[in-house]
Every structure is written in C-alpha cells, then in structure tokens.
C-alpha cells in the first residue's frame, strides 16, 4: 500500500467521484476548527486539536468519517441514519452521491474538541 505524505496526496489518489466530497470535508473541518492540525495518521487524513478529532477514508462506494464512539452517541447515530447516512460505533458514511451532513458534522467536531479539552490535565 502506498504511504501518503499529506492529505493532498491522499485525495489525489482516491476514486475521482470521492474527491469533491473529501475536498469539501477538508474545507468544512478547517472552517469549523481553524486551529486544527492536519496530518496523515493510519495512512489517511486526520485532524487534531487537543487530541484526535476526526479522520476520513474512501472505500469502494462511500467516504467513511470517523469521529469516535465517545461523541457518536445513539442519538447522533439515529439522526444521521434518519437523514440517510449509515453509521457505526464511531463513524458515519457518505455515499458518493450524497451531500455532506454539514450541521451534524459541525456538531460532532465541536463536541469532540470539547471532550478532548476536558480530558487535558
């Protein structure tokens, strides 16, 4: 498997239909958390602010967005599922033909940073 040096390299190598989603995700993350640090972790783009916040990866027919089980509550999963986004314990999926669930993502990002800050000594 190719090792990616940065998010640009990752986005350039994934399926063409996923690239616009990733570019918008990246922009949304940086707008919501302007002080976050972007780096490659586990060979996918990840964003850190007082700890890990969110990462994303491309699979065969969707983008997987991981925010962690600590903020992906049952209520959040239900809201995303009701809006048509499959979820897992700490992730949600965006199919290539779907829009990013912007408000859900912003809420999850802010909750994750708040949780990270509470964990700091």
Features:
globular; 121 residues; 40% helix; alpha+beta
The ordered string of helix (H) and strand (E) elements is: HHEEEEHEH
CATH topology: Aspartate Aminotransferase, domain 1
Specify the oligomeric state. single chain
Please list the strands of the largest sheet in the order they lie side by side.
Answer: 1-2-3-4-5
Give the tally of structural domains.
1
Q: How many β-strand stretches?
A: 5
Distance between the termini: 37 Å
Number of helices: 4
Taken from the alpha-carbon principal axes, the silhouette is: globular
How would a textbook summarize the main sheet? 5 strands, antiparallel
By CATH, the architecture is named Alpha-Beta Complex
What structural class do helix, strand and pairing data support? alpha+beta
**Mean pLDDT level:** 95
Poorly predicted tracts of residues: none
The top level CATH class name: Alpha Beta
Question: What is the radius of gyration computed over CA atoms, rounded to a whole number of angstroms?
Answer: 14 Å
Percentage of residues in helical conformation: 25-40%
Estimate the strand proportion.
Answer: 15-25%
């Amino acid at each position: 498997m190719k090792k990616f040096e940065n998010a640009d390299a990752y986005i350039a190598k994934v399926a063409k239909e996923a690239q616009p989603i990733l570019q918008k995700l990246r922009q949304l993350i940086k707008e919501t958390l302007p002080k976050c640090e972007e780096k490659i972790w586990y060979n996918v783009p990840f964003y850190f602010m007082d700890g890990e916040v969110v990462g994303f990866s491309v699979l065969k027919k969707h983008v997987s967005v991981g925010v962690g089980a600590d903020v992906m509550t049952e209520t959040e999963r239900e809201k995303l599922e009701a809006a048509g986004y499959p979820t897992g314990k700490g992730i949600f999926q965006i199919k290539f033909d779907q829009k990013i669930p912007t408000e859900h993502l912003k809420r999850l990002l802010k909750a994750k940073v708040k949780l990270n800050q509470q964990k700091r000594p």
